[in-house]
Amino acid sequence: MKKIRVIYLFTLILSSVNIWAQYQKDALLYKDPNQSVERRVEDLLSRMTLEEKVMQLNQYTLGRNDNANNMADPINDIPAEIGSLIYFSSNPDLRNQVQKKAVETSRLGIPILFGYDVIHGYRTVYPISLAQACSWNPTLVQQACAVAAQEARMSGVDWTFSPMVDVARDGRWGRVSEGYGEDPYTNAVFGAASIKGYQGNDISGSKNVAACLKHYVGYGASEAGRDYVYTEISRQTLWDTYMLPYEEGVKAGAATLMSCFNDISGTPGTANHYILTEILKKRWGHDGFVVSDWGAIEQLRSQGVAKDRKEAAMKAFNAGVEMDMMNQCYNNHLATLVKEGKVSEELLNDAVKRVLRVKFRLGLFDNPYTPSSTEKERFLLPESLKIAEKLAEESIVLLKNEDNVLPLKNGSKIAVVGPMAKSQWHLLGSWRAHGNAEDAVTIYAGLENEFKNRARLLYASGCDFDGEDKSGFEEAKATARDADVIIACLGEKAQWSGENASRSTIALPSIQEELVAALKETGKPIILLLSSGRPLELNRLEKLSDAMLQVWQPGIAGGNPIAGIIAGRINPSGKLSITFPYSTGQIPIYYNQRKSGRTHQGKYQDIPSTPLYGFAHGLSYTNYEYGDIKISSEKIRKKDKLTAEIAVTNTGGMDGMETVHWFIYDPVSTTSRPVKELKLFEKQLIREGETKVFRFEIDPLRDLGFIDGNGDRFVEAGEYYVMVNDKKVKLEVED
Ligand code: NOJ
């Protein structure tokens, strides 16, 4: 009997130990890295209280905020349960302290997600996005974004609010600098490349960050280029112009999206169920989360669709915004809204799961802290600088080169003038993250490096960026008289573009134009270097100059490639990603406009109706001869595939990189279509005397088809044209 009792007792102890072990295991399931993300998410969610869930959906700031448009919270009592913080410091220590609080003192130990605006580089600032697109080199952009991700993640940032893929056709809008120009396909390709660069193959990598596609959707249509305002976008235009870059970005794996500030034809992006839920989550199946833009939930009140912050929280949440950036609308009202049945628990759970999913995917539960490193170990690595320099080089566009005044001959005496010549700060552009002006190579320093012992540089600033002070003109003229050629470095201050930086004209301030007019009196050839965050109105300057080089805001490594192009060490290969209007009055003007009923009429009476420089314009120091387009078949059925080819020969005296843009044109369709649409681009190195073949594999539905106002793609039987430059070929699609 005693023996039986002992055995019984022993079995009891054993099974309790087992139950305890099992309990322990279950208890920690979400902390077990061997479990799938979905199981961990479900497990964690099942343990959370309503309040804990709500806290995951809020974002505050931490550290210094240097964006004048965003008012920061003081650095104080960050709740340990907060979902996310915007991290303004470039040192991981502060992050780690706050993270420790979250991981060690909150009940469930959920790590915080640290986000930041890493837009065109973190410390190694590379050219603004609008310029990047002029490189037509997505691989290079991907590499630059990988550098930004490495610098950011090693500094304590897990998540960047980038890329911006808002198609923008109004240069007055300051944010035109932040996207990839006027064309949907171009934005789609570069957006996807940058997502791949930021995220790598796996966002848990110690040098990768989660991307955030923004601002979903249509922000670029801001009326008259003013910021934060209404946008009038029909469903047809929404789909054929604005949605493609988002759809492709989601396909490329963007972990998150940011909803837009703008009111889309009566329904603000922050409260837009159609775009956020019906399309993004249901149709495209995105399983990450959407963050609001800064203060945008509360702004539903000023936009006139919510009477108070509580209603704003309800509308935004029910529409599909999972995280509240800086409003405290969710943490103040969401729990009550759930209790009142105005927000369903199911939707709340779904939102929390989305946020947790991204945190698990980033590996934050397993590696919540950023390893310490020195600035030297994480910033400005030689390879990173090379990429920044190469990207600046390829994004510079030679707009004009009369009588081949460029490249400059050796032995020239060069007068360098203009407010941009010695500026470091303004080369960086807006959204410079932790960019440091002292890291930047100025145009003047670049010229010095390039022309060492080969030319003499003379300098006079001439004037400031704006204002009326012409007292420097005489000195500039005297300097120019003493030289063989003038390089006038003009442009915009960094803060003239970016967020909340609209301008009523895209011309440079008249003082800069007057300086060039004064220099013209010397009779010396004038080369203009133009640095800006937007397309410029150049018709007056064009008449005064011999050559014009659009250098954009090229980042810290811009000075050397600019000088390399002037000296002929580098053959320019950039082409415009956005139309340069003849004057501001032509806006909106873009290459893929719809057809007019009367092409021979409807012109402006006072100015030309064509732009000064069209989309994809860009000169080279060599010549390229294009053969005819050859197609594998002139007739195809809708389901067939087709190949088009074009041979391009470098007949000039220098190796060069040439980009071929493939356009299509559909003369007759049920829905009116643009005069041409870009479907593919490719850049190749073509050596002097060499011929390269460019190929376009045409999928009729994807490339010849069109999208309707419901987002459905269709292709119709009929005639189509495939076009490259002035070459075109007809083909017939049958049912
Ligand atoms: C407002 C801007 O619109 C957005 O692009 C940015 O990411 C956020 N502020 C955060 O700084």
Could you explain the architecture of this structure?
The protein is α/β, with parallel strands linked by helices and 735 residues long. It has four domains: 1-28; 32-361, Alpha-Beta Barrel (TIM Barrel); 381-586, Glycoside hydrolase family 3 C-terminal domain (Rossmann fold), CATH 3.40.50; 624-734, Immunoglobulin-like. The protein has 21 helices and 27 strands. Strand 7 (263-264) and strand 8 (267-268) form a beta hairpin. Helix 2 crosses helix 13, helix 15 (382-395) packs across helix 20 and helix 16 crosses helix 20. The radius of gyration is 28 Å and the shape is globular. The mean pLDDT is 95. It binds 1-deoxynojirimycin. 1-deoxynojirimycin (NOJ) binds at residues 67, 70, 117, 161, 214, 293-294, 499.
For the sheet with most strands, the description reads: 6 strands, mixed
Instruction: Indicate the mean pLDDT.
Output: 95
Shape category: globular
CATH topology of the largest domain, which one?
Answer: TIM Barrel
**Uncertain ranges:** none
CATH superfamily of the largest domain: Glycoside hydrolase, family 3, N-terminal domain
List cofactors, ions and other ligands: 1-deoxynojirimycin
What's the CATH C level of the largest domain?
Alpha Beta
Beta content: 15-25%
Concise account of the structure shown:
This protein is an alpha/beta fold and 735 residues long.
